[in-house]
């Protein structure tokens, strides 16, 4: 292994791209696999859990890793594409070691593990050599004091806890994009997943749920108290919430819809009423909608919202009041690219694209795909028979419905 740093901390590895010798990205780091034999001897790092395209988890032996630097991991390129299955003698650093309660034997300080450092031994094996421990917060402090000590100076690392907290793991997950955090949560042991879900905020859990396979979504939501499940559904995009509720038992769906805020529930019910795999069923009811008196500056301020996906931020939909779906008369769309070329004080209504037709709610998946391709769009308005905007279909909505069921958890072809 050449030019590798002397010590690498695990939490900084998660999410790093994995490259082959030609410089092509083949996946991302998801966790470290170690063999812990005792609390005195440094555990050997067996390898990494890598996620290759298609969300397949594979095992990347450390013998295949040629270099680790601040932003990437390089391998020999010879990777076994067989799905990773954890053995009973193996421990996942992110999934199982973080948040473990420990005691620093030299000082008696108690705390939880928030990271571990690995380095190469003289025989070139990678081992866990350092443990980062955080004390509980005291007084007005938001966080307790931290200590980085030798592996052999910590007691409790081999003890499995039935009710292990998830504070440090949550901190690490919050640094990841929702899709990456969902991948980590998908592979957690059941008790750890339960702890993580309990500790996530409703908004963050909603973001993660939207990226999980349907089975995981239904299982996680089913394990929540009804009130919290309804709160999480309110935080989800209406189209994603509608898809998830449709997978629940009818009696459960009815209870959750009753517990949701009336306006949020109404949006979801409206989407659920459309025929499956049509524009109406896959659209979002919350695109960026402005009135005809809005300026270009107003439009640019709205599309800067970091919560918008790139596809939703690509178009501004101009309508007569009311400006919530179903709106007043739909006037047209303005492309973000065009808005960037216009004076900020000019009206959005003056730069509408009048060259394209609108989608109807009954349009099929093939018709939606053809429409987006014809007009080179990443999003398109859906308008009812009376000329009111009822939603917008984005290319990511379309792909979600065109790809095979549970595509998020399907294996890629190894050939």
From TrEMBL:
UniProt keyword annotations, A-Z: CBS domain
InterPro entries, sorted: CBS_dom (IPR000644), CBS_dom_sf (IPR046342), Mg_transptr_MgtE_intracell_dom (IPR006668), MgtE_N_sf (IPR038076), MgtE_transporter (IPR006669), PRC-brl_dom (IPR027275), PRC_barrel-like_sf (IPR011033), SH3_actinomycetes (IPR058838)
GO CC, alphabetical: membrane
Pfam families: CBS, MgtE_N, PRC, SH3_actinomycetes
GO MF term list: magnesium ion transmembrane transporter activity
Listed PROSITE patterns: CBS
Every CBS domain range: 352-410
Record's protein name: CBS domain-containing protein
Origin species: Nocardioides anomalus
